[in-house]
Structure formats: C-alpha cells, structure tokens
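Run log, item B.
One chain of 461 residues. Sequence copied directly from the ordering sheet:
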Amino acid sequence: MDLKSGAGTKPPEARLSRRGLIGGALAAGGAAALARVPGTALATSPGDGSDAPVLPAVDFFEDPAINFQLLFALSASAYGASETGEVLTAFDRIHGRGDTYRSVFGEFQQLGRQLRKRGEEARRAGRRESARGSYLRATMYLNQALFFVLASGNPTRKHEGALYREMEGCWARAAALFKPRFKPVRIRYSGGTLPGWFLSPGGRARRPTVILNTGSDAQNVDMWVYGGGAALERGWNALIFEGPGQGGQLFLRNKPFVPDWETVITPVVDWLRAHPKVDRRRISLIGQSFGGYLTARAAAHEHRLAGLVTDPGVHDVFSTWRTGLPPEFLKALDAGDRDEADAIWRSLPRYLDEGGRFGLAKRSEIYGNGGGYEKMKLAQRFVMNREQFRRIATPTAVFSPQLEQFFPGQPQTVKKWLRAPSKLVQFTIGEGGEYHCEPMAPQLRNERAFDWLEAHRLPKR
C-alpha cells in the first residue's frame, strides 16, 4: 500500500483501535507476559503446568516488571554482589519518588556510583577485600540502572553504551581483586572475538568447567551470582562470555542475536578443550532465561558437552511476541508486507503507558536497529521443534519455576521432547523459587544445577 499518497485506504495506524492495541501490545514481548504476574493477590495458576498449590508471591512493587527485576538485585547478596540493607533502602527511595521506571534508574545509578567511589577509596588505602566488595556491589547496582536506561531521560544506545562501560569498569576492578583473579579472555568467533572471563580456583589440576550462557539482558555480574560463585565453591572453573546480542556486543558494537547459537558455543568449547586447566571430558553448559533456548539450540549440534541445564526450558521464544502484538501487525509480518508492519510498529508507543513503551523498546533492541518488520522477522527464527530437541545427546536438566511469566508450559514440552537422559526440576513459591529464573533463590538454583552436572560426565574417549 502507498502510505505517502493517502489515497484509497487509511494508513494502518488509523485502522487500529486503541482497545485492540492496549489489549495486545501494552507490554509487548517480555513485558506482556510480565503483566500476568500476580502481586499481592493469589495467583490464578502455577504457570508451570503442575498441580502445585498456589500461594501469594513476593511483592515489593505494584509494577510487576520493576518488582521482578529488582528481586535479582536483592538476592545477589547471596554472593556478595549486593547488600540487603542498601537494596531495601533504595526500594524506599524509589517508593518515595512514585515507583517509576525513571526513579529506579536514577536511584541505582546513584547507588552504584557511591559504591564505586567507596571501592576506589578502599583500593587506594590498600584494603583489598573492602575494595572488591564495593566494586562488586557497584557493578550490580549499575547493572540495574543499565536495564532501565531506555526509560531514563536519555533513552539512547549511546547512553546504554556509556553506562555499560561504567558498569564493566567496576566488574573488571572487582575481578582483579579476587584470589585467584578472574582472567579476561578473547575467543575467536566469526572473524572477530567473543569477550569473556575465565574463573578458576587455581592450582595445576584439570578441573570440570561450566560455560555460563546468559540471556537477553543479564550481565557478567549476574552470571557470577547465577553460577560463577557456585562453581568456585565446588572446585570448578567457570567461563562467562558475551555473545552477539549480549552486553558489550549489543551496547558497544550493535550486534544483534543470531539464531544458530551453535556457531557461538562450538568455538567456546574448542577454546576450553585447549586450556591446560580444563578437564575436556567435563565441560558443561548452563543457559539462563533466553539462554535456556540458546543453549538447547547449541546442544542439538555440539555433542561434546558433559551436561546441560536450561533455566527455563524454552522451545519458542517468539511466543511472547505472538501473544503480545496486535493481530494486524502479525498478519502483515506473515504476509511479508514490510511497509504495513513497520507503520503499525511505529504507531504502537502512542497507545502505551510507561511500562508498555519501555517493554517494547527493551525487548526488541536485541533484534537489531531496523524497523519492526526486520526485528520480528529475526525474532521468528528463535523457535525449535521436536526433532531438533531429539538431536540433543547431552544429559539435560530442564528448570521450571512456578509463575514462569515468559514461557509458561514450555519446560514441560521440552522435557517431553528430549530423548537424552533428562529431568524436570521444579521450583515453587513455597521455597521462594517462583518467577522466571528464580530471582529470589540463586543459591537453591545453583545447588540443583550443579548437583545435576556433577552427576553426569562424558564417557572417556
């Protein structure tokens, strides 16, 4: 259709009803699913396909997206990456400013910078442990601010990049103060490199090693909380890395996600198998959030892994968009009508509240800088079928928390499709394990992940 002439038909945004958009795209992508998370009320369904009793979920904020994200900041105290009192005091200040996305950004940016300054003072005074702790907490707090940059007064990629550099500077300073220190690495990939960090307990022995694969919006410090610290406690090595669409690859280099994630994981496995401190028979993989899908996709092609944990099990990433976007957009997308789809996409923000606009921008930025048609055409490629899951030969633990708000029911499907030895590992509200990626229970989550991995290894070759 001709959007410029104005003749014949109305532009697509004029044909969309406000009610239709609000109902379908209010919180497009991830935020659409988040809108279903209960607050103080009883949940209406477990969200995990089980018959487990449903109890009230933990609620610090009425806005479910803010509540969900900030639970990660609170529970990071389990691995020294936050302080409970600092986080709860920040919560109070956010409440005082009206519980807005912008107030979350401002409070955690300020808190992160305060801790960074404290770390610098401790480092200059020779107080190594105090400096490390301050830098680590500063990293987590700046991480929370980074998540909400697109709701700040300067919602740009340039601002994201600047805050990412600030956050990663704190992470690097903390990493240098661990004993042994975490070592920055570069892994060859597709004509360039993947940045990462190699964590090891030290010594000359070849150790079991876990690859920690984050999802679409967690950072290196999150992978310390969700696997890195636990690996060192158990005498394991850990590799944290950033693939396309993640961290600096997105914020600094504008590289979107790629659907063939085996092209990312195979070079990582190659690099580890050549490392003198790695037992090449015991290299395992944990995928968190979107990484639950990515690691399954990789394991369908990469068969040298000793164990796999998908947290959660995911086979259809596009499902959140399919249920969150208006049918007019999906029809244009399926028809290959770029002009129509892009015009509808551009019209969406005018119908959305703060949370909806933020959700649309945040959840779609990982698919590149093009229009809505180009972004969603890429998003449609992150889907696996039964036959692809049947190619996975690696023993696999499929995590499934109650109130899984992004991919409800998908862990059960993944478990059903797997031929490899597998186990569905459930987390309940009663043990504080509810919500996507168990944001309040990193220790429990890590215990179950490493218990599974320690029970499985590749046969000697």
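Observations after the first pass:
- The longest strand covers residues 278-288.
- Residues 1-48 have pLDDT under 50 and may be disordered.
Flagged for discussion on Thursday.
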